[in-house]
């Protein structure tokens, strides 16, 4: 039968019935239902299994604090585990599956854990899986891994998109219950820019779950009319389905808006969720309060829930978990639940009040001074056993039990900056303390004002104060009439003598576990949390922490405030990783930088490699080449034989201008730059202030007051930052300006014996680039087909070489022009691999050698550090420890057996020495196969390497089983005199 | 966090990169007798206060100013933001 437990009334739309499935079975609900309310209306109380003991569980709450009713929502790629049925908005066609059970929810084989619970007490894992040690990897860990975890992932890519957004406001109001609505109204009517955010899809908070009136309207009607007014105001942004998940520094809040979770699939072009960053000048925490349970024997059966949740299901959703219910309370609010349910025609078995002096009723029985001592019903509550004031016992038949242990203000966001909440005796609960996040104030139930009148009043008052801070005169609305019941609560946390009284239903922590932890000396709340897992997982103990603290306090003979709370951290409710990632996923994970020749390189079939964010052509395979080495060997050989062309745009380029430009470079580089003539390039080595090499490159002097500095691709950003630091912080009066022009210029290397002949065909004829007019290390402005460009005669490959640059937009045209011009020379285009091979053959240091541990001395450039001037790093490069007799020196290595390789990372040992760290002589930094020499080569650092040329050393890499001899040689394998550069 | 840039007004901290103690402005004189010792102190000895701290931030995603930000490390409250260049000049640095 359909919806047997559906009552009259409620805020559901009976004109919009909706079908849904739970564990394969079809049900009907209505628009406005949550999955939990619709299941209850269909007389389904069992919705999940607990984490550890696999005990049958139903919803404990009607909101985001839910520990039990967590399900897998949807199927296929959109499957989402650990979704709370209590907040999942029903839509037509929704499918949900229970989790943490096998083979079915009603019969779960793992429930055997429950029988063995004696063995699974707090600290079970720490005590049990200790020995034998060999068992850990083979036996224990696989078992734990299989048993651990809640729900399962689809393992398919998420088909939905997520977005991020930024909002600014004068006042952020967190929570749209009576307090938040009134605060927002006050601020909005006063002209402030207001954002009102609430996690629910229906704004109004508890007003939607209560039967009393506000002013001359129903509570929910009043809320709806206020939301209507606010939504129509241009200075208000009303955000339903939006959870403020964290309070960050300086008034910044994180909020997740569930844009499409209530739809089968997101509308076209809409994200599933948006992560908002809200910049607020002031914020009001109007997050309300959460009812807390009481721990008693077997208090976790499906049907046992918070009294306020029971009331919400009946009043808001017209759904009752059972036809006959009881209420267990220590305060007057529990009686309101009984009265409301009675009015809706639900039979009240009794109200069990722990107090002897609580209210009585004419409509149903109230058992004063009584406690629930036990419950029955395996898959759902059937009976509760009550111990009466006189000590006698009574058994009540009921299918649901509402439990009310008082209310806890939702202080979480108030404590996100480590401010500790303070205890308030009259409500027996924590309220936000003094040290709130900057600009935040708490109001209403979040501040301990639990009556509706108190909440409305507090909303106006706190908003007025916030407006004062903003310098806005408050336009105070008149308060509607509302209930103003006093809070009568006598703290009552747990029924004594219970064997299995559940505190944390999500983690299966009982009152006894807390006692055990205390007995084993876990006396700090943070330790208690880790040892028992109390307050962990998806609900973060919203309904359980207070109970645990109370028991801890009792055992330690302290008050609850002395024991204190654990630290509250964002996010307030579980947040999907996809939401935090936003659009930064797949190909948009981070920006991709492409060089101006990218399209051309793609046309050539280039294989690309990521270098930082850049995509660079790694090599260009030709027809018939099946291995990358074939391509690279060809590119290298042909470049050295004739001419090769390579895109070097990614090298960092920094324009340095000003009367003091040369003085500035003299500070930045360890070698001198003051006397570099105009039209010349000089190699420069930059040190860090601690004397370690930072980066190297060239500086070309285009004019007296104008240099172009190049950096390595990887260090471009860091070097620029460093140069600005030196300019602004160390030498603020130097007349020099810097700008990064890396992306402004496309730059190509043209290298090889025919480089000049090729370029001659490309640059405009008026430029004389003969060896006499444009010698090695010359630079100058040129033009190519009338387009201004720059030419640098510098070489990384060791060949006669140039780098030619044009503004980026001409980069594609230039590469095509160079390649066309190169046809008659059989010019080759080469990628980063060939570039690397040629620089290793030449013995040039690169990133592998400038690795953050090496000095100029290590690099064989010790004499470059000019002692007659002040430059960054020169003083500390003189430290004794960096200048020892046996300092590492950059040298070359070739295998004694030419068939062997020289793998980078392998270490060097003196022949005959022990192979261990104490006898380490150095290591290989870069290695390759040299097509010109016909064998592998490497360069690396060897102790006193420069004096050991010709020595045979042992190359070892125990992990990769390398162990053979190499000969120490000069790092300059090709043209050591540099003749080729100068022809 | 929000950093009130002296030229650009309030900017999100994500636009900046952090370097550390603003004492890095006090680079020693390389020609001093004990220059090596001074540079070792300069390079390696920093205080790490719980409380007010003057530190260097670089507006990398913005106008590339180096700033001296006075921040309480326990609360993240920022009480002062200056252009590092002005601070350097005030403290006698020049060329």
| Radius of gyration of chain A, taken over Cα atoms and rounded to an integer in Å | 37 Å
CATH C-level of the largest domain in chain A = Alpha Beta
Question: Given the structure, what is the number of helices of chain B?
Answer: 2
- Cα-based radius of gyration of chain B, to the nearest Å: 14 Å
Provide the domain count of chain A.
Answer: 7
CATH architectural type of the largest domain in chain A:
3-Layer(bba) Sandwich
Give the strand order of the largest sheet of chain B, numbering strands 1, 2, ... along the chain. 3-4-5-6
Mean pLDDT of chain A: 95
Number of domains of chain B: 1
In the CATH hierarchy, what is the class of chain B?
A: Alpha Beta
End-to-end separation of chain A in angstroms reads 96 Å
Task: Give the helix/strand class of chain A.
Answer: alpha+beta
Question: CATH homologous superfamily of chain B - what is it?
Answer: Folate-binding superfamily
Largest interface: A-B, 29 and 36 residues
Q: What would you say this structure looks like, in words?
A:
The complex is a heterodimer of chains A (983) and B (95). By secondary structure, chain A is an alpha+beta fold. Chain A has 7 domains: 13-129, 2Fe-2S iron-sulphur cluster binding domain, sarcosine oxidase, alpha subunit, N-terminal domain (Ubiquitin-like (UB roll)); 162-289 and 409-470, FAD/NAD(P)-binding domain (3-Layer(bba) Sandwich), CATH 3.50.50; 296-404, 3-Layer(bba) Sandwich (FAD/NAD(P)-binding domain); 492-556, Arc Repressor Mutant, subunit A (Orthogonal Bundle); 593-650 and 744-838, 2-Layer Sandwich (Gyrase A, domain 2), CATH 3.30.1360.120; 652-740, 2-Layer Sandwich (Alpha-Beta Plaits), CATH 3.30.70; 884-982, Elongation Factor Tu (Ef-tu), domain 3, CATH 2.40.30. Chain A is 21% helix and 28% strand. In chain A, the strands form 13 sheets. In chain A, strands 8, 9, 12, 13, 14, 15 and 28 form a 7-stranded mixed beta sheet that branches. In chain A, strands 41-42-43-40-34-44 form a 6-stranded mixed beta sheet. Chain A is elongated. Chain B is built from 2 helices and 6 strands. The longest helix of chain B has 10 residues, at 35-44. Chain B is globular. The chains are: A alpha+beta (983), B alpha+beta (95). The A-B interface holds A 248-252, 279, 417, 438, 660, 663, 689-690, 717, 721, 724-725, 728-734, 870, 874-876, 878-879 and B 1-2, 13, 17, 19, 24-25, 27-28, 30-31, 35-36, 39-40, 42-43, 56, 58, 60, 64-66, 75-78, 83-85, 87-89, 93-95.
């Amino acid at each position: 039968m359909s919806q047997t437990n559906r009552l009259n009334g409620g805020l559901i739309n009976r004109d919009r019935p909706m079908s849904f499935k739970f564990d394969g079975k079809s049900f009907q609900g209505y628009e406005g239902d949550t999955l939990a309310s619709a299941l209850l209306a269909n007389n389904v109380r069992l919705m999940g299994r607990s984490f550890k003991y696999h005990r049958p569980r139903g919803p404990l709450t009607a909101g985001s604090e839910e520990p039990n009713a967590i399900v897998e929502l949807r199927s296929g790629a959109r499957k989402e585990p650990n979704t709370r049925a209590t907040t999942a908005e029903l839509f037509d066609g929704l499918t949900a599956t229970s989790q943490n059970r096998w083979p079915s929810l009603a019969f779960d084989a793992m429930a055997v854990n429950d029988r063995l619970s004696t063995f699974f007490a707090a600290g079970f894992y720490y005590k049990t899986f200790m020995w034998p040690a060999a068992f850990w990897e083979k036996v224990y860990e696989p078992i734990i891994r299989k048993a651990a975890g809640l729900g399962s992932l689809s393992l398919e890519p998420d088909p939905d998109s997520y977005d991020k957004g930024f909002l600014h406001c004068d006042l952020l109001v967190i929570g749209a219950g009576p307090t938040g609505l009134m605060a927002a109204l006050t601020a909005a009517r006063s002209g402030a820019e207001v954002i009102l955010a609430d996690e629910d899809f229906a704004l109004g908070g508890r007003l939607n779950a209560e039967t009393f009136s506000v002013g001359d309207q129903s509570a929910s009607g009043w809320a709806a009319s206020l939301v209507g007014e606010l939504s129509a105001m241009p200075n208000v942004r009303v955000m339903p389905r939006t959870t403020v998940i964290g309070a960050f520094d300086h008034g910044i809040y994180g909020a997740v808006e569930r844009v499409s979770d209530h739809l089968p699939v997101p509308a076209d072009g809409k994200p599933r969720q948006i992560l908002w960053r809200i910049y607020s000048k002031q914020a009001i925490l109007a997050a309300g309060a959460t009812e807390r349970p009481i721990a008693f024997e077997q208090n976790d059966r499906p049907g046992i829930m918070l009294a306020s949740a029971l009331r919400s299901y009946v009043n808001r959703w017209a759904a009752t978990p059972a036809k006959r219910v009881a209420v267990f309370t220590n305060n007057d609010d529990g009686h309101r639940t009984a009265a409301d349910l009675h009015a809706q025609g639900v039979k009240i078995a009794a109200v069990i009040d722990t107090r002897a002096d609580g209210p009585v009723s004419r409509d149903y029985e109230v058992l004063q001074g009584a406690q629930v001592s036990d419950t029955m019903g395996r898959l759902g509550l059937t009976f509760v056993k009550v111990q009466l004031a006189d000590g006698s016992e009574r058994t009540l038949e009921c299918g649901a039990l509402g439990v009310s242990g008082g209310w806890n203000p939702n202080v979480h966001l108030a404590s996100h900056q480590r401010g500790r909440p303070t205890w308030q005796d009259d409500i027996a609960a924590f309220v936000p303390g003094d040290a709130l996040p900057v600009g935040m104030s708490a109001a209403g139930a979040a501040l301990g004002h639990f009556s509706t009148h108190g909440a409305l009043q507090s909303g106006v008052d706190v908003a007025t104060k916030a407006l004062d801070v903003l310098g806005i005169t408050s336009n105070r609305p008149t308060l509607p009439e509302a209930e103003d019941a006093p809070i009568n609560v006598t703290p009552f946390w747990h029924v004594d003598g219970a064997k299995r009284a559940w505190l944390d239903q999500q983690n299966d922590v009982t009152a006894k576990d807390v006692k055990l932890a205390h007995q084993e000396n876990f006396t700090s709340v943070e330790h208690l949390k880790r040892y028992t897992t109390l307050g962990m997982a998806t609900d973060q103990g919203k309904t359980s922490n207070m109970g645990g603290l109370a028991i801890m306090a009792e055992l330690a003979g302290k008050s609850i405030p002395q024991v204190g709370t654990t630290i509250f951290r964002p996010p307030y409710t579980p947040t999907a990783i996809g939401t935090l990632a936003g659009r930064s996923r797949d190909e948009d994970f981070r920006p991709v930088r492409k060089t101006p020749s990218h399209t051309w390189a793609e046309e050539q079939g280039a294989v690309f490699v990521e270098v930082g964010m850049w995509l660079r052509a790694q090599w260009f395979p030709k027809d018939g080449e099946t291995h990358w080495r074939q391509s690279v060997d060809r590119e290298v050989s042909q470049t050295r034989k004739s001419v090769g062309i390579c895109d070097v745009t990614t090298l960092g380029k920094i324009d340095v201008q000003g009367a003091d430009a040369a003085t500035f470079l003299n500070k930045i580089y360890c070698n001198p730059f003051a006397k570099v003539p105009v039209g010349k390039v000089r190699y420069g080595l930059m040190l860090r202030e601690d004397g370690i090499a930072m980066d190297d490159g060239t500086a070309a002097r285009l004019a007296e007051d104008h240099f172009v500095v190049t950096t390595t691709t990887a260090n471009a950003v860091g070097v620029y930052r460093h140069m600005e630091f030196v300019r602004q912080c160390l030498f603020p009066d130097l007349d020099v300006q810097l700008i990064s022009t890396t992306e402004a210029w496309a730059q190509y290397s043209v290298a090889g014996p025919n480089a000049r002949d090729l370029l001659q065909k490309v640059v405009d004829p008026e430029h004389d680039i003969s060896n006499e007019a444009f010698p090695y290390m010359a630079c100058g402005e040129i033009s190519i087909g009338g387009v201004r460009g720059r030419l640098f005669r510098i070489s990384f490959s060791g060949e006669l070489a140039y780098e030619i640059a044009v503004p980026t937009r001409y980069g594609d045209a230039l590469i095509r022009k160079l390649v066309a011009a190169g046809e008659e020379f059989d010019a080759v285009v080469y990628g980063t691999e060939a570039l690397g091979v040629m620089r290793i053959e030449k013995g040039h240091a690169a990133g592998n050698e400038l690795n953050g541990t090496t000095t100029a001395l290590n690099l064989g450039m010790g004499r470059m550090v000019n002692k007659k001037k002040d430059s960054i790093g020169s003083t500390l490069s003189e430290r004794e420890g960096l200048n020892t007799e046996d300092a590492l020196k950059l040298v070359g290595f070739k295998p004694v057996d030419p068939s062997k390789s020289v793998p980078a990372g392998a270490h060097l040992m003196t022949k005959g020495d022990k192979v261990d760290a104490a006898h380490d002589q150095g290591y290989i930094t870069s290695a390759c196969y040299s097509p010109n020499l016909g064998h592998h080569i490497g360069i690396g650092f060897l102790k006193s390497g420069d004096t050991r040329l010709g020595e045979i050393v042992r190359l070892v890499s125990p992990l990769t089983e390398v162990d053979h001899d190499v000969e120490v040689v000069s790092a300059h394998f090709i043209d050591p005199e540099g003749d080729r550069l100068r022809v | 966090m929000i950093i009130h840039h002296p030229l650009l007004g309030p900017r999100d901290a994500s636009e900046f990169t952090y370097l550390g103690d603003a004492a890095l402005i006090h680079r020693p004189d390389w020609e001093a007798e004990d220059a090596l010792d001074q540079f070792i102190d300069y390079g390696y000895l920093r205080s790490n206060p719980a409380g007010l701290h003057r530190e260097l931030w670089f507006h990398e995603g913005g106008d590339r100013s180096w700033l001296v930000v006075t921040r309480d490390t326990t609360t993240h409250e920022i009480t002062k933001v200056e252009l590092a260049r002005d601070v350097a000049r005030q403290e006698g640095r020049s060329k």
